[in-house]
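Now for our specimen.

. . .
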Amino acid sequence: MNATASAAASPASLAASASDAAPPAARIEGRLHARLGEFTLDTGPFCWPLDGITAIFGRSGCGKSTLLRAFAGLIPRLHGTLRVGASTWLDGTVQRPAPQRDIGYVFQDAALFPHLSVRGNLEFAAHRAPGRPGEDALQLRAAQLGIAHLLDRRIAALSGGEKQRIAIARALLSGARLLLLDEPLAALDWHARDELLDLIARIARDQQLPMLLVSHAPEDVERLARRVVFMDAGRIVGVEPLQQALLQPDSPLFDRLGPVAVLEAPATALAEGLAQARFGDSLLTFPGSADGDATRLRIFARDVALSRTVPSGTSMLNHLPATVDAVAPSRPGHVLVRLRLGDGQGLWSEVTEPARAALHIQPGDALFALIKTASIEH
């Protein structure tokens, strides 16, 4: 784990920033300790709002799934404290049993009952939920998740993406108030991943259902998360709002494609296949659709050029006014320029050292960020 996460190791810094605040009754907080063979989970104190999607991120073997199982009540001899909203789930060594935690758990391999049909798997969850949702509720949930045509299928006949949809539907029918997702996208191809990412985001938004998402894939975190819980060697080493975590030049969320920014803004549809987002007084055209609600966009530093003036005679029609916040070293011969847009959101640009020198780029400079429409990920 690099400096971005380790710098946030003090208990005070483990709460998300003031702008990410929520009432005390709507938080997850505690401190957990468990010894599992040669691995020790020792989180230290943690606290974050119980809303939106919170990603648990770190390298393989750092304890992400173990932490999720601890939240679910699936680890014996767990010590410490755990409070979720107004409920105490762990106090010392006294644990609230897993069935009494109102959670839905979606495993990496879906963990469906192979001897039951899709309908049978959903009915199993519904019959054990508070109020025992009936056939109408089952049909409605199936329609919402695009699985109504699968209800009479056997589990063995489903694709990986279909199985995960069934697993999510089963978790929702159980009456879950908190959804735990343990790398549900890891075994899927890119097309199924994209569809499931959109589905998870829509559920979180439309149903206001808090989720904890375990992932070691930065793209999943950047497309879904409101905040990130960084883990290393069984310990929570930082909790940050997503956009804040991405403003560090050495963020653990950057992969081989380099630094990336996540921007959110209201957007409206343009011509077919294009939409436009508003950042203060500036407009940004991107590929995709929009309905007027907030839209999340991913823009890589390598796709952002800089100019002192608005250029003419170029196919790059996105020219966003921005202020240079900082200049940091990058790979050999390159620098990272952190920009602040008119609405305060941050954006990265990676340029060569000769380009920086030619433009005399310094913190405080007013520049234009030039972004190719086709490079923006929606």
User: Anything to note?
Assistant: Residues 190-207 form the longest helix (18 residues).
